Amino acid sequence: MKVILRNGKISKGEMPMFLPKLFKVEDFNALIDFLRKNPFATVISSKDDVPYATQVPVMVDVIDEDVVLSFHLARPNPQNKTLEHNKNVLIQFTGAHGYVSSSWYVQEEVSTWNYQAAQLTGECVVLNEDELMEDLKRLTDHYETGDNARTFDTLSEDVLKQAKGVIGYKVKVREAGLKYKLSQNRSDKDYKNIVLNLRESDNQGDNRLAAEMEKLRN
């Protein structure tokens, strides 16, 4: 049974993520949009009960009804060894987040942290040489824009040889969870006051969080 469904919603399959119903997002398109807007993720694996984690840019593809994630690790990275023995990974994506002070509420209450996050699981498959070069080309060309863009096709042979220093992986997603903890449990008055304080902050992260909250509740 596929856990990721393209026709509307994320399936209710088992997912090792704390997902209270109030904060759970089940819309498939929202998941894909979130992943692509927040591509710098953490890949987590384990070997002999020891956890390993690496922060990497991740490419997101939808192929038929499957979500496929691809990334690469530096060849000397010890996490590669864990993936030889245990191919299961958890990939964590983080969106807007920030501190919410209880002083912004009408009545006394505890402070909290608002955030957006996605967790996805699946098994890693090593990319062959051609697949790795294609993946690096897509990654490079996606971010290289403008008149002076250094696209993949313009790179010298010496630079391209550095691809031998990385190992590429793809993951067909098995389970996915998307969580927006954005004060949905607060009154409209509290909610508006939280957004106002975040908007007035000098911190760009707070401003981004305010924008995400405004999308959720106008």
From TrEMBL:
Annotated InterPro entries: Split_barrel_FMN-bd, TR_PAI2-type
Superkingdom as given in the UniProt entry: Bacteria
Pfam families named among the record's database cross-references: FMN_bind_2
Native source species: Macrococcoides canis
Protein name: FMN-binding negative transcriptional regulator
Coiled coil: none
